Amino acid sequence: MRKAGLVVAAALQATAAAVRTGITTAELDAVAAEVIRTSGATPSFLDYHGYPAVTCISVNSEIVHGIPGPRVLADGDSVSIDCGAIVAGWHGDSAVTVQVGTGTGSAAARELSEATRLAMWHGIAAARLGGTVGDISAAVQAYVRALPTPYGIVEEYTGHGIGSAMHQPPDVPNLGGAGKGPKIVPGLALAIEPMLTAGDPANSVLDDDWTVVTDDGSLACHWEHSMTVTDRGIWVLTSPDGGEAMLAEVGAPFGPLGD
């Protein structure tokens, strides 16, 4: 899974670096596809329940599962890129959000993105052996609710277990109570992925049967990492450094098994 996670990290890094005014989301998808192909990995998303692309690319009011296509990115757009890869039957899954240029609304978009990113890391930091999935949910919720800006937390779409399949039990909600839910045990890997909105988190699925959008048209954001917990601490499988720097920042133990 660490190998798959590093492929996903490389694909996201290359794709995020390619984001610019005038590029299409299909062209960004091709960047990720090339990184995965040349790494000898297989895309997790392509043909998953009929999904037609290697990445999900969600722009502005799109929360998640946006299908790459002819859409041309413009200055000020906020772009969430979600990607998965398989190595030797094991999956990695991660998402980042980046902004295009410095157009109208970009400052608010960056603030929403940073809030979502840090909510993810606080959720990751709450994981511990013997703890519960609810500890993660509660940490995400508590961080977001304590922010001065009242962001919405999307309830209908959650994190998940990951391993020999991209989606496995248990679900990892972004709202919940500490001490609730399944126990975190050695060998359990989870994808932690908060989705926040600048307005009401109520949402709908478009006619393409994939793209989820905010009902009020407000800006949305998505960040995700796949992680596990060892007897030494937390290991973020889709982070190039295993999560070491951010775990230190949020005061959580770093516990890799080795690359």
Outline the structure in words:
This protein has helices spanning 2-18, 25-38, 106-125, 133-145, 244-250, and strands at 42-43, 55-59, 62-64, 78-87, 90-99, 152-153, 159-161, 168-172, 189-192, 195-197, 203-205, 212-214, 220-222, 225-230, 233-236. The model has no long low-confidence stretch (mean pLDDT 97). α1 runs antiparallel to α2 (25-38) and α3 runs antiparallel to α4 (133-145). Strands 8-7-9-14-15 form a five-stranded antiparallel β-sheet. Strands 1, 2, 4 and 5 form a four-stranded antiparallel β-sheet that branches. A three-stranded antiparallel β-sheet has the order 3-12-11, with no helix packed on it. Helix content is 27%, strand content 25%. It is of the alpha+beta class. It is built from five helices and 15 strands. The protein is globular. The termini are close together.
What's a concise summary of this model?
With 259 residues, the chain is α+β, with helices and mostly antiparallel strands. Helix content is 27%, strand content 25%. The chain has a five-stranded antiparallel sheet. Strands 1, 2, 4 and 5 form a four-stranded antiparallel sheet that branches.
- Biggest β-sheet description: 5 strands, antiparallel
- Element-level helix/strand string: HHEEEEEHHEEEEEEEEEEH
Spans of at least 5 consecutive residues whose pLDDT stays below 50 are none
Count of helical stretches:
5
User: Which structural class best describes the helix and strand composition?
Assistant: alpha+beta
Oligomer: single chain
Roughly what is the average pLDDT, rounded to an integer?
97
Widest sheet: strand ordering = 8-7-9-14-15
- Provide the β-strand percentage band: 25-35%
Q: How many beta strands in the DSSP annotation?
A: 15
So what's the overall shape? globular
